[in-house]
């Protein structure tokens, strides 16, 4: 049975990890973030091919198809946490802990966010081009390509407010996944803790800015009639703003306040091993 670490310890651990990330040299953080963008994209690609290829299930039971899509997508998030890559949306919450404790400045947090977002963008766009488009996985002869088009069109057609609100819930669940992943002391426990919230936000159709940096550009490369401007204005900006609010305001700051350093730190268990 997986052993669970206490919430107080998790917040202290996140505080130290966030401060270590602030101290990283920009090239290291950028490369970590690029890897994170690639991993998220690969999880998305797997979900697209399997769920989008299940045309019979999609036609007869779209709810189960959404569950299938959501169940496969967390592969990328699990890889990010277990291998030490970096993800902008998680940083929205984790950086709030040392900021609340006045151990880092808002400028330092902003620098981490910008470098992380840039690296994730590069990684996701590269994966869309190299692993989805150049491999032929998104050619019109494949049954899941119309699924990709429909997914991207749905994201682009939603209003600013709808995408923003979906972005809030998406990153609340993503950051909850990171918190739960950190709570376990073994690999299987972390994987399960990460999988459930990520599966939930994907199956519900919420908006994750980094995932969308793969889904929508991949669809555009495959032939979707949409412009970069439409992507940025209609989806990327409101999704990113929603992700920031969901991670920082709804997860990071509440937990930083609930388990502030003034309430005392728990001792680290002797057999603790965290990613």
Automatic annotation (TrEMBL):
UniProt GO cellular component terms: plasma membrane
Transmembrane is among the record's keywords: yes
Transmembrane annotation, as ranges: 29-51, 71-93, 114-138, 158-179, 191-216, 236-258
Pfam families with a match to the protein in the record: Form_Nir_trans (PF01226)
Cellular compartment(s): Membrane
Similarity comment text for this entry: Belongs to the FNT transporter (TC 1.A.16) family.
Entry protein name: Formate/nitrite transporter
Organism: Formivibrio citricus
């Amino acid at each position: 049975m997986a052993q669970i670490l206490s919430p107080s310890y998790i917040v202290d651990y996140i505080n130290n990890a966030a401060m270590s990330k602030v101290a990283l040299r920009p090239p290291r953080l950028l490369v970590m973030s690029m890897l994170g963008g690639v991993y998220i994209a690969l999880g998305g690609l797997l979900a697209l091919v399997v769920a989008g290829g299940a045309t019979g299930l999609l036609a007869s039971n779209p709810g189960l198809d959404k569950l299938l899509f959501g169940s496969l997508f967390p592969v990328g998030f699990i890889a990010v946490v277990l291998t030490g890559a970096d993800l902008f949306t998680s940083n929205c919450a984790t950086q709030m802990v040392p900021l609340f404790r006045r151990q880092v400045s808002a400028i330092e947090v902003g620098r981490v966010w910008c470098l992380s977002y840039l690296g994730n963008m590069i990684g996701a766009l590269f994966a869309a081009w190299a692993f989805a488009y150049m491999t032929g996985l998104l050619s019109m002869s494949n049954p899941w390509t119309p699924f990709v088009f429909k997914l991207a069109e749905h994201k682009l057609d939603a209003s600013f407010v709808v995408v923003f609100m979906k972005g809030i819930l998406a990153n609340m669940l993503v950051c909850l996944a990171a918190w739960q992943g950190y709570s376990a002391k073994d690999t299987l426990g972390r994987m399960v803790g990460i999988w459930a919230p990520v599966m939930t936000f994907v199956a519900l159709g919420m908006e994750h800015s980094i995932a969308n940096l793969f889904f929508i550009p991949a669809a555009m490369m495959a032939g979707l009639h949409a412009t970069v401007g439409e992507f940025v204005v209609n989806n990327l900006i409101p999704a990113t703003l929603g992700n920031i609010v969901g991670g920082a305001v709804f997860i990071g700051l509440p937990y930083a306040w609930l388990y502030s350093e003034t309430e005392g730190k728990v001792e680290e268990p002797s057999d603790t091993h965290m990613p």
